[in-house]
Amino acid sequence: MGQLLLGLLNGAFYAMLSLGLAVIFGLLRVVNFAHGAQYMVGAFIAWMLLEFFGLSYWWALLLAPVITGVISIAIERTLIAPLAEADHLYGLLMTFGIAMVLQGGFQIAFGSAGIPYRVPPELAGGLRLSFMYLPNYRLWVLAASIAVCLIIWLMIEKTSLGAYLRAATEDPDLVGAFGVNVALLITVTYGLGAALAAFAGVLAAPIYAVNPLMGVELLIIAFAVVVVGGMGSILGAVVTGFMLGVIEALTKIFYPEAASMVIFIIMILVLMVRPYGLFGRQM
Predict the structure, then answer these.
(1) How far apart are CA 38 and CA 42, in angstroms?
(2) CATH number of the domain enclosing 228
(3) What angle do CA 214, 65, 112 make, to 5 degrees?
(4) DSSP classification of residue 256
(5) Rounded to 5 degrees, what are φ and ψ at 85?
(6) Is residue 258 part of a domain?
(7) With pLDDT > 90 as the criterion, what percentage of the chain qualifies?
(8) What's the structural domain count of the chain?
């Protein structure tokens, strides 16, 4: 039961990061390699807001995703948008370069050692369950991740903005003919995806040390989650994120040696049987 709960907690981070990746890929058709760096930037902004401005964790949770989203919108407009008509490979390489620059810049400024970020006093302590001690903060992370994933899914599936977004993924020229500013929609979508990554980074800051490379390993797993769930599938990213988190945790009990690779083994098997993912559609 303890590992099952830990799997859900890890799956919360996988789902949050994968959701942002799926949102960006769904409209831009760009595999955003900068996503892990945006996750890291969110954590660093939260730390800076506390260290230099004395703002609480709750203000950081609100402001860091907004700041990261605005920075990412500027990056999309100046660096990624000019490549819209080029092969998608150029967009992938551009985001990879952006990630390297961000990680390198933060390493120069703050070094590679982790910087601690304390748990907010309101969430200190924990629950002593029969099978484990569960910190209150971990429980908050799980609840916040589920709530945000549900809100984003409802926004995309049940609102007019979501309808425009889904239509633009199918035929952007036709959507533009109806008067929708597709370029603006793409920019806002990229900013939203980056903000989701930053939100996950703020949630992770009190659990993991804040450091420039904190998003690298999680990004690789998030890509695997998106592939298994189906590229561009919002529901697939969320469900698969939690599912693979649980499977990874249970593997640590029954076959610990395979725990670090089980997600990628599942990805290979899914691609062999269903190349467009569990929740994706055949193109």
Answers:
(1) 6
(2) 1.10.3470
(3) 25
(4) G
(5) -90, -10
(6) yes
(7) 48
(8) 1
Taking the C-alpha atoms of residue 101 and residue 23, their distance in angstroms, rounded to an integer, is: 23
Would you say residue 117 lies in a domain? no
Q: Which domain holds residue 11?
A: 2-112+122-273
Strands (E), 99-141: 126-128, 133-135
- Please give the Cα distance from 19 to 238 (Å, whole number): 6
> Does residue 154 belong to any structural domain of this protein?
yes
- Mapped onto helix, strand or coil, the DSSP state of residue 34 is coil
Spatial contact of 19 and 198, defined as CB atoms under 8 Å apart: no
- pLDDT top residue among 230 and 172: 230
What are 67-103's pLDDT values in tens digits?
999 999 999 999 998 887 888 788 889 999 999 999 9
- Vertex 227: Cα angle to 215 and 164 (nearest 5): 95
Rounded distance between C-alpha atoms, residue 60 and residue 47, angstroms: 8
The residues, any chain, with a CB within 8 Å of residue 78's CB and separated by 6 or more, are none
The sign of the dihedral angle between the CA atoms of 66, 27, 11, 151 is: positive
Q: Which two structure tokens, joined as six digits, stand for 242?
A: 């939690």
Partners of 128 in the beta sheet?
133
When pLDDT is averaged across residues 241-252 and rounded to a whole number, the result is 92
pTM (2 d.p.): 0.92
Q: Is residue 230 part of a domain?
A: yes
208 three-class SS: coil
- How many CB atoms are located within 10 Å of the residue 139 CB? 15
